[in-house]
Each structure stands twice: as C-alpha cells, then as structure tokens.
Amino acid sequence: MFNDFKLTDNRPVYIQLKDYFKKMIMKGHLLEDQKLPSTRELSKLLSVSRNTVLTAYADLEQEGLIYAIKGKGNFVGKVDVSKTPSIKLDWKEKVNTATLLADELDLMKHGVRWEKGMISFNSIAPDEKLFDMENFKRAFLTRMSIEGDIVLNYGYAKGYKPLINYLLHYMEMKGIDISNKDILITNGFTEGLDILLSSLTKKSGRIICENPTHHTALKLFRLHGLEVHGIDMKDDGIDIDQVEKSLSQADFDFAYLIPSYHNPTGIVTSSEKRTKIMKLFSKYQIPIIEDGFNEELRYSGSHLAPLLTFAGSGNNVIYISSFSKILFPGLRVGWILADKELIHWLESMKRARTIHTSTLDQAVLFQYLHDGYFEKYLKKAKAVYKKKYELSLQACNQYIPLKRITGDGGLHLFIELEKEINTRTLLKKCYEKGVVFSPGDVFYTDGRGGNTFRLGFSRLNEEDIIQGIRIIGDTLNEELEK
Amino acid sequence: MFNDFKLTDNRPVYIQLKDYFKKMIMKGHLLEDQKLPSTRELSKLLSVSRNTVLTAYADLEQEGLIYAIKGKGNFVGKVDVSKTPSIKLDWKEKVNTATLLADELDLMKHGVRWEKGMISFNSIAPDEKLFDMENFKRAFLTRMSIEGDIVLNYGYAKGYKPLINYLLHYMEMKGIDISNKDILITNGFTEGLDILLSSLTKKSGRIICENPTHHTALKLFRLHGLEVHGIDMKDDGIDIDQVEKSLSQADFDFAYLIPSYHNPTGIVTSSEKRTKIMKLFSKYQIPIIEDGFNEELRYSGSHLAPLLTFAGSGNNVIYISSFSKILFPGLRVGWILADKELIHWLESMKRARTIHTSTLDQAVLFQYLHDGYFEKYLKKAKAVYKKKYELSLQACNQYIPLKRITGDGGLHLFIELEKEINTRTLLKKCYEKGVVFSPGDVFYTDGRGGNTFRLGFSRLNEEDIIQGIRIIGDTLNEELEK
C-alpha cells in the first residue's frame, strides 16, 4: 500500500502527499477508523522527509479527514461519501432564450477559426511583441510598495480613486468640461456598455447607431432586446440627413456612436459633422453613448475633440472607453465618463453585478499611466502601427479589386467589393489558402454588408500583411474571372 | 506669458508641459496659427531642459494640436472648440426602474456608515494585516517571467487555462466527480451568480432559498424580478419539511443554498441534511446553485463535502465560489463549476458581458495557489480567525442577553434577540457609542429579522471585539430596563 504515490508536478511535496491521501479517503480506499502508517514509516516508505509527512497529516486533521489519538497514531475520520441518485437535467432546455441567443451570436464559437500558421486579419488586438513588460512590472512593484494592502483588499464600486482622478484629468486635456462629470470604472468597455444598456433601456426600446457598427455592441443590443435602427456611413461619418429623418419619426432611448476609427469602417467623423450631430441630438433630447474606441491611434491629420467636448456643460453625452485595444487587453479596465447624477445611478448597478473592478488591475494601470510609460509606449506603438497601416492600405489598393476602402487610422481597414461578391464565399476560398478575415455582415444592423470585410493588421508582421492581402486579391480575381 | 506654468505633481516634466499647452489651446488662450516660443527660449523661460520642450512639442504635433514649419518654428493648429447648446437631461427620469431598485437596495449608499475610529462589525472581508504581500509579489514576478505576453493579452471567456485546471483538481480533492464538469471563471462570486440568474431565470420566475440568506444574492434575485421563496433555518440547516411542502406545491427555476457558514447565520448544514436536500431536489428535478462561501474556514469538526460531491455523476448542482473572502478581495476572481453543457451556454453569456476576467488576476492567483502559498496562508489566517471566532462567541454569550446565537466557524456570528427588540433602534444607540453592526432584516426574504443582527469579526483586533460586544450588550440591557 501507498507505493502508488507519485510526485506529479512541481507543487510542494506535502501538498501532493495530502492530495494523495484525500483521494484515497474520498474514494473509500481508506476506511473509517483505519490506522495510518506512522510518520516515520511513511517517510521511509515514500522517501520523503518526515516533516513533509507531519505537515500533510496536520493539514488532513485540520480538514477533518483524519484524527489523531495520542500515543496511538493517526486514523481515518468519518467522511460521508454517499452519493445520491444521479439525475441528468437537459441544460439546453433549462436555459432561457437570451442564453441561446448569446450562443448563437458568439463569433468565437461560430466564426471562422484561426489555425496556427495562418495569416489572420481577424484580430484588432494589440501586437503582444510591443508589450512593455519591464515598465509594467516596475509599475506593479511601485504600487505594491506604496499601498499593497489597499491594492489587495476590497475597493469601491466607482473605482480606484487615483485612477479615476487620473482619467478625469486625462479627459479634461481633451477639452472636456469635467466640472459636472464623474467616472465609473468597469471591466473593460464591454461591461460598461452592458451596464448602460441595463440602465437606459426604457420606454421605446429603440436605439439609433451607425450601420455597420461594432459587433460586440450589436450583440449586446440584441441581447437586451433592443430594436436597432442603423444609419448609413458617409466618408465623413454618419449620414446626418437620415438621422434627422429618423429622429423626427420615432422615439429612441439613446444613440450609440463611434466617432473615431469607427468599427468596422475606420472612418473618422469630421469636426463639422460632430457639431451637427450634437445639435441634432440635443434638439431631440436623446442621450448619446460615445464610444471612444482607439481615439489615441491617430497617425496624422488635425486634432479632433470627442463629442463630449462639444457638449460643453451639457450632460447628454456618455463617453465610454478603455485602453485595452492599445495597452494590455489582459487587464480588464474601462471607464464611463458622464454626468455625475447618471454615474450615481450606474454605480449601484455596477455594485450589484460585479462589486467593483479588480483593484490590482486598476492600481497597476494607474501607476503605469502616472509614471509616463503610457506616453512612451503609445509613441512606439503608433510608429509600428502607422507603418503597418500604410502598408496595408497600399497593398489593398494594389492587389484587391475593391469598390471602396475606408480607415483613416487605427488598427483595421474596411473594404467594400462589388455587389455581386459574397465575402463569406471569398473567405472560404482564402481559408483554404491559409488567410482569414472578418466578413462584414456581422457588423450590419440589417443583414446587409455581404460584399464587405474587415482587415485587422495590428498583430501581423509586414511580410504577412502583404502576402495575405495578395492572396485575398488573387483569390478574388480568380472568382471574378469565372 | 507661460510664466504660470508650474509642476504640480511627480509625473514626467514633459507630460506636465504638454498638458499645460493642451489646456491653453483648448481653452482658447492660444489661438490658431499663433507662433509658439522656440524650444531654446521656452527651456530658458521655464527652467526645464531643452529636451523636455522638444518632446512636449513633438507630442503636441502628433496629436494635431500644433504644427511645425521648417525654419520658422511651431504654431498652434486648428482646434474646434465650438460648444453646442448645452442641454440638461433629467437622468433620474431617463434611467429605468431596475436602476432605481439597484440604488434603493444599495447598502453601501443607504446602510449605516462606518466612521474612522469606530468599532465596525459590518465587514466579513479578510483582515488586510494578514495579507501575504511578499509571496504575492513573488507569484506575480514568476508568472510574468513565464508568460508575461499571455498574461497581458486577451484571454478566453471561460478563463485562464492553468487556473481552470488547478481549480478542477482542487474541487476533485473535495470528492467531486469532475468527469462531466467544467469551470467558468467570473469576476468574483457576484458576476457568477448574476450570469447564472441571467441564464436560468425562465418559466416560473420563482426561486427557493434559505431565509435569511446572503443579501447580495437577495439583491440580485430582486433585480432579476424573481419571486423569492425563503425557507426557515434550523440549527442543522434548512427546514427540509418546509422545502418538501413548497416543492410539491409550486414550480421553481432553481434553488440557492449556502451549506457552509451560511450567510448570515453561520450555520453549517449537516451531512445527513445534505443527503436529504440532494434527494429532494433530485426528485423534483430542480437545479441547485450551491454557494461555496468560505467553505475553507472550518475550525473544527468532521469533514463535510459540498452538495456537488453528493451529486456524484448527476448534473443538477451548480457550484459557485471564490477565494475573495479569504485571500485577496481586490482580485476579482470567482468560478462556476458545473455540468459541461451548462458551462458551454454560460460561456457565451460571459463573453457577451465582460469578454473575460482579468488574465492578470487569474494568472497571479494561479501561481500563488500552485506554489503552495495558499495552504500556508490559510493555516495562518485560520489560526487568527479561529481565535477571534472563539473570543467573539464567548463575549456574545457573556455580555449580550440573546435568544439564539449561530455560527459554527467562518468570519461572523448571527444573533437573535427577544421578539420585541428592534436591532435598527439598537444600532442607532450603539452608533452613538461608536459601534456598528449589520441589522439582520436585510438578509430576510420576507421583511422579518427585525430582532436579529450579524457580527463580522474578521477585521477587528481582540480588544475591539470584546469592547464592541460589551457596548452592544450594555446598550441592549439599558433598553431592556426601560
């Protein structure tokens, strides 16, 4: 007996020994009141130190699995392992329709899978080769030494105060009037939007947004049962005449807009259009959720302020963003900047749903920002991404027989082909040649976009970018020749 | 001009200089096409290095706020700061009833506030003085050096694979049949429960649970519009006869149970009752959400397996837990252990709502667990908490004229006073004497519990525990004498 004990990994030996006994007891291989070998015997038998056995036995006793009798030794305790009759529920039948819809709209499950060695234009996540690990570690150690006990304990639902203050200042530098504003820190952009939808969905159940739009947002709109009213994109942003027409005809709970590096088209809404948008939505008293997505990734052109800047002291714009797409997506930190009163209401929603966002994530991010590493990193990253952007743009124009290409910066381009082309069919052919991209229809509110696709270039090297785009172009040309 | 520039904090100087110019431009103090001082002039004027000015100017140019003309210098760019007419929405009117309810049920907003210097029995969070900072730092640095790029980039909705595997093993050691199970990592227990409610609330809209029960769970039940059916607690757990009667009379979407260190009563459900519970709910095919809350904090007594262990290969128990209450609440990591099929459905809900839980939090927690620091920490913490527990129990019995006291371990005790005593009135008096606790009514599903309260002792030192309990007792005696 006990000679089947084996060290299986590099965890402490006493823990592995404890686990071994636990298993034996749980499975009924050791019976109640059965005497265990003495620590001396076992240590010899298993060639482990006696201390290891002592610690393991002490832990087992602590957990009530064994008991000791002075002078007599250790014995197996009473462990109820009686199993009740096993029943099988049909979970597909037990979960509700929202859950089935979430599964249906889950691109990670149903989208085209990227495989090793493939050239994938699917991602618009940052290139991990750029990660600034050393300064990140430094920021961690600095913050831990300043207030490690606060970093590791419960925080506030609104967020980690130093980070909130930093972000308020950061946003003020974009010309935003922060005097009547406050910030709620969320688990990335996605939780922020989900909380907003949970709070703002009210009377009409109808929202207005750009068409196409960010597919994660679109998924959430659908999961919240919203009627999504999409408005076409012009080269300088949303079609404002269509917006006016829609607002005059129906009621909307709110608008959702991505003025910079619009996802998926990459279009940057012009300054003139921003003013028009603000005037129009103010007139109809409709709140705007402004998605600040990748606003930092402007490679050229004049300065552009967020819609929230144009709102001045008005309180109808809710700005929501995160640094995830630029900095460290593994840290789930986003924020909502909005009117103080609204943040007051949202705070309770946040607390009810996730208590608060990881203090560790917030604290390290704060230190990293505060110490100026973000500025340095952004400069480096922008230089790399700009090059990839220009390369991608040039290659697309050179190799792909396209009808329209948009994207003024950021980490992706959006391509429209001739009407008769179906990009899902194209994707299938490209997949066979080891190239994948995001078919555009998933971004559309109304099933259109079958002739469009999105190209994310951030995580590819220059060689793969050119080769991938060339393959897409060649495949498309073959199709067109048929 | 420019002599009002001041260094305000310890951020890098060039960033503060950049911010200064940004503000001047945004506020219109510097006008379009206005020439800026040369780098040499400015460096002299502000007594900063010329490099600092060069970097600040370069950044401003990058952001489109200034432009350079070769041989002529730097000029203010075109910045549209036109404000649109300011409008004021009434957010209280714009948010929906769920949001107003979340605010109403928000104990942090409406509960009795703890003030510095007070003896607060409100918290059942861990004592931060016990935090094992050095090993936490070690775990961070180890994990970062192993796979820092993975830690900082996007992860999977289901969770960080090494942590999932660790937890599966950890739960298997509790006698759980993991062969048909899987794990979903969540942002703490709270998100886990919220996702479960979002997915399982279906036909009846009715749930069954212990009465009293965990107030955060109760809040979420109400926010999900569920009809909550509470069952009285006996000293060995839920009143099983009442459960049987309820199940035979109405349909329920699921049960929510806290078998160990039940919150708030601290009662541990006996092994015999666990078997009965399992048989009963299996008979009626009702899923059980088992809250594994603080299961690790058993100070004495024989071993007790989770309900999920009793379920054997059955799939009707959903186990949900976190180490937050023991380890580091600042890290928001919890998990759902359940049937593979159910986890498959929940995964899409998780992805839709928060993409995934912080990889950083998960990775550091994994390393900390893997290296055996958790076991060591738990031993230390248990010794401290056990002492506080025994002290609190003794002091309560000595000083408080109570009717019933429950709590077999964990970090809190629950006290029932004579029917005519209102613990909210008692709290007001105690508050004046610098002592606060949690009035018990917030834990009840049906407005009862006016004569009960919860005492959390984890974060208090021994002296304060005794003094605090004595003050409560004295105050109560004064009231009774009246």
TrEMBL record, chains A, B:
Keywords: Aminotransferase, DNA-binding, Pyridoxal phosphate, Transcription, Transcription regulation, Transferase. InterPro entries: Aminotransferase_I/II_large (IPR004839), HTH_trans_reg/aminotransferase (IPR051446), PyrdxlP-dep_Trfase (IPR015424), PyrdxlP-dep_Trfase_major (IPR015421), PyrdxlP-dep_Trfase_small (IPR015422), Tscrpt_reg_HTH_GntR (IPR000524), WH-like_DNA-bd_sf (IPR036388), WH_DNA-bd_sf (IPR036390). This is GntR family transcriptional regulator. GO terms for molecular function: DNA binding; DNA-binding transcription factor activity; pyridoxal phosphate binding; transaminase activity. In the C-terminal section; belongs to the class-I pyridoxal-phosphate-dependent aminotransferase family. PROSITE patterns: HTH_GNTR (PS50949). Its cofactor is pyridoxal 5'-phosphate. PANTHER family: HTH-TYPE TRANSCRIPTIONAL REGULATORY PROTEIN GABR. It comes from Priestia filamentosa. It comes from the Bacteria.
